[in-house]
Amino acid sequence: MNVLAVDIMERFYTLMWPMLRISALMLTAPILSQHAFNLRLRILLALVLAWMVYPLHRWPLIDPTSAQGLVEVFNQIMIGAMMGLILQVVVAAVVLAGQSVATAMGLSMANLLDPNMGSVPVISQFFTILSTLIFVGFGGHAILLGLITDSFQNLPIGQSLLNQETYGRILRWSSMMFLGSLLMALPVMISLLFINVGLGVVTRAAPSLNIFAVGFPA
């Protein structure tokens, strides 16, 4: 019985490392971190993914109660959280693009209370739903699972990887939130600019025309 108990504890210690990283990713990933995704299903999915990833790599045996083990626990949680936050930058770019488009269209007051993102314009919510459908339709969830598997090879457990250079790269990647939102909102904003110019010409040509009845649908 002692040998069996030791073997079970060793398996638990080695299974805990992929479980920590995957669980942290589940808490911060765009789709999996939503409140509509049940917590029990999230825990079960993290356990299943950890069990699937477990036989693909060799895991170091580190005591989590030791000083080295506590540092490694923190590293795995930070790596998983950073992976999810990097993906959240894309979602934030979509929301920011929707806010820019809503402001240009005069729909910035039409907000929707989203339990995941707070009070956002309806255009941002529409962009978010559309981007989520495109992400799932193109197999983005499968790419995310492959990212989890490859992360244990590129970022192995037991090595100190989160340094100042890594945090600098993550901060530079956060600038894509503004660049991506500008690239998504720019075509719509240019089209609205031409519409406003056209409505200005129509207003000068026909002053008696009700510009609110024509301009808002346009």
Task: Describe the strand arrangement of the main beta sheet, using strand numbers.
Answer: 1-2
Helix content range:
over 70%
Instruction: Count up the helices.
Output: 8
Task: Please give the radius of gyration in angstroms.
Answer: 24 Å
| Distance, first to last CA | 77 Å
> How would you describe the shape?
elongated
Name the helix and strand elements from N-terminus to C-terminus, one letter apiece. HHHEEHHHHH
Total count of strands: 2
The description of the largest β-sheet is: 2 strands, antiparallel
Indicate the structural class: mainly alpha
List low-confidence stretches.
none
What is the average per-residue confidence, as pLDDT, rounded to a whole number? 77
Which key terms come to mind for this protein?
mainly alpha
Q: Would you give an account of this structure?
A:
The chain has 218 residues and is mainly alpha-helical. Helix content is 72%, strand content 4%. It has eight helices and two strands. The protein has helices at residues 2-28, 39-53, 67-105, 122-137, 140-154, 164-174, 176-205, 211-215; strands at residues 111-114, 118-121. Strands 1-2 form a two-stranded antiparallel sheet. A hairpin with a 3-residue loop joins strand 1 and strand 2. It starts with a helix and ends with a helix.
Summarize the SSE layout with pairings.
Blueprint: H1 2-28, H2 39-53, H3 67-105, E1 111-114, E2 118-121, H4 122-137, H5 140-154, H6 164-174, H7 176-205, H8 211-215
Antiparallel strand pairs: 1-2
